[in-house]
Amino acid sequence: MEKGDIITLAVGLVIVLVIAVLANPQYLSNIKSIGKQPTPVPTTAPLPVPTVVHLTPTTTYVKPTPIPVVPDTPPYRITYTNNPFQYPVFKIPENMQRFGASDIISHEQEWVPFAFVEGKQGGLTQNFSVPYPLWVINTTIISKTNPQYGRFQMALCNKANGIIIEGDEIFNEGTSYRLVQVSNTDMYMIISTAYLDGYYISLEAPRNYYDKYRPK
Questions:
Q1: Same domain, 96 and 24
Q2: Taking the C-alpha atoms of 205, 211, 215 and 216 in order, what is their torsion angle to the nearest 10 degrees?
């Protein structure tokens, strides 16, 4: 091959290469990148996972304010009057049997004494009033000296008109109960005794009535 032919061939190759680069410029970029090290991709560190703390709610205990307990009032004594003739009725009725035997009370509930009468001889008591809608006359007589002759009689009277509200009669020794449902009324007792060593009359109210209606 002649020297001129070689030059012609080389010029032709150059022209072809230039045309190829002009038609596909990305080849030039690929050629430039040959031999270069790839740019390292920065590594992103993982974000820390937040720690969830579960707080247990604390229950605040509030101590309730204690309700003050009012103690029971000691029972008061009902005394006798010095002027029995000022009352509309001052004698025990002749027919005491009409009041019957002792009433039956429930011993499952508490009965609170609020007044009492005690002694050996009879008489008429002073006026008194009871605030409780239901209460009981609890009477116990003692007759050790002559028990066969012992006798106790009682009449509960309305002070305004002398009407007998309740009555009781006990022979020898023993205890009797009389339920009364009269309240906020002036009353008095007529008491007659014979051959007794003593008697004790306790006026008592059920606990629920006592706490609700007791004088403040």
A1: no
A2: 160
pLDDT score recorded for residue 49: 62
Single-letter residue type at 169: E
In a domain, 160, yes or no: yes
**Phi, then psi, of 9 in degrees rounded to 5:** -65, -40
Residues 170 and 126: their CA atoms lie apart, in Å, by 22
User: Rounded to a whole number, what is the largest CA-CA distance in the chain?
Assistant: 179
Q: Is 168 inside any structural domain?
A: yes
What is the DSSP pairing of strand 135-142 with strand 174-180?
antiparallel
Helix (H) or strand (E) holding 146, with range, is none
3-state secondary structure 22-60: HHCCHHHHHHHHCCCCCCCCCCCCCCCCCCCCCCCCCCC
- Residue 31, pLDDT > 80, answer no
Provide the whole-model pTM.
0.69
Exposure of 124 in the CB half-sphere (CA atoms within 13 A): 19
Q: Residue 114: which domain range?
A: 76-213
- Give the model's pLDDT for residue 38: 53
Distant-in-sequence, close-in-space partners of 85: CB < 8 Å, separation ≥ 6: none
